[in-house]
Design brief:
- The protein is built from 17 helices and no strands.
- With about 375 residues, it is mainly α.
- Helix 1 crosses helix 8 (about 135-150), helix 2 packs parallel to helix 8 and helix 16 (about 320-350) runs antiparallel to helix 17.
- The chain starts with a helix and ends with a helix.
Length: about 375
């Protein structure tokens, strides 16, 4: 069940990330304005983030398997729209980008799925699931090459075919863990109840900070390295890939630590490391220090903190609300990740430095660390 869930997350993450590397090609072929190009990349992120709330809620009520299959079908629809008409006109491209946001909701169904199957090793299972985010790297590595070899529709058709195969596998082999009841309250009442839970409010702070820093060191890293350190695009891409690999690889380790010592302690240690690294980077240290010290600490800290937060949700939230709480938390984090590049851009435009942006992130890290310390002493 874990392998199937991981495969589904990997494939939808692959699809979710396709428009980013293709945006420059689409800009040239369709004559997109800078704003339209930004929307093409941002719309799947925003829709995927907000869509995690209903997907997580429905996973609790209807079962994660059904939501996996529904998200797979919606993602395939988006890919086929992009393959047929989406790459031929700007309006169709924007419509396809909105539909593609469905691919970003899979994680909200995956967390309650593996939490129910692995109650004794929840942290390790969630961490293993999180490695599916590497699917985004596959999109970055293959999308442009497929276009060069077979045309603009190729990346969307190949990804759609892979998802069709997964849909058959999911329909025939995927099963939800046995459970004795389903939530009785309506969607609005359940959302209100989820927002009232202390674990929801705390996790929003922790996960939003983590995702903001992750976006800074992945999606926004090539621009940051080019402007702050005059690093070439090719080298910046290599650095970005290394960061993503290390960060994702640390997720199972973070989950194991959360199982072994409880999620609160690894979370405090990880947030402490993130706070120190962010404080150092606010002064824009020399490039060797950033590459050899700051960036590795950020990668390790983000991998551990991500799994620790999700494990804390699994341990603390009511069993029939794990999906909804995960959806709310990851939706808030997605919005934070969407706003982070804007913060970096404004900082550089107004001051010719990214120091002010990292100072804001440092303040957020201090708040998150304070909340984690309070949670360590008062876990209820």
């Amino acid at each position: 069940m874990l392998v199937i869930a991981l495969l589904g997350y990997f494939l939808t993450a692959w699809a979710w990330a396709l428009l980013g590397p293709l945006a420059p090609l689409l800009r040239d072929s369709l004559g997109l304005s800078p704003l339209t190009q930004a929307l093409v990349v941002a719309l799947p992120v925003v829709v995927g983030a907000l869509g995690r709330i209903p997907v997580g809620s429905l996973a609790d009520r209807r079962g994660s398997r059904r939501m996996y299959l529904l998200v797979t079908a919606l993602t395939m629809t988006a890919l086929l729209v992009l393959a047929t008409v989406g790459h031929r006109s700007a309006p169709a491209l924007l419509a396809g980008a909105v539909l593609l946001g469905a691919a970003g909701t899979t994680f909200a169904a995956g967390v309650p799925f593996v939490s129910a199957w692995f109650p004794e090793r929840r942290g390790l299972a969630i961490g293993a699931l999180g490695t599916g985010l590497c699917g985004g790297a596959l999109g970055g590595l293959t999308a442009v090459r497929l276009v060069d070899a077979y045309g603009m529709a190729a990346p969307f058709l190949v990804s759609s075919a892979a998802l069709a195969a997964f849909g058959i596998l999911g329909a025939t082999a995927m099963r939800d863990a046995p459970r004795h009841s389903v939530p009785a309250a309506g969607a609005r009442g359940r959302l209100t109840s989820a927002l009232r839970l202390p674990i929801t409010r705390r996790s929003i702070i922790w996960y939003a900070l983590g995702f903001a820093l992750f976006v800074t060191c992945s999606n926004a890293l090539p621009v940051y390295l080019g402007n702050a350190y005059d690093v070439s695009p090719a080298r910046a891409g290599d650095v970005m890939a290394a960061f993503v690999v290390v960060g994702v690889a640390m997720r199972p380790i973070g989950g194991w630590l959360a199982d072994r010592f409880g999620p609160a302690r690894p979370l405090v240690i990880a947030l402490t490391a993130l706070t120190v690294a962010t404080a150092v980077q606010a002064f824009t240290p020399p490039l060797p220090i950033f590459l050899a010290a700051v960036l590795p600490v950020l990668a390790v800290g983000l991998g551990v903190s991500s799994s620790a937060v999700l494990t804390q949700i699994g341990h603390t939230a009511p069993p029939l609300m794990v999906g909804l709480v995960t959806g709310v938390v990851s939706a808030a984090a997605g919005i934070a990740g969407f706003l982070t590049p804007l913060l970096l851009a404004v900082s550089f435009q107004l001051t010719a430095s990214y120091g002010p942006a990292f100072t804001v992130l440092l303040a957020a890290a201090l708040v998150a660390l304070a909340v984690a310390l309070h949670n360590l002493r008062n876990p209820a």
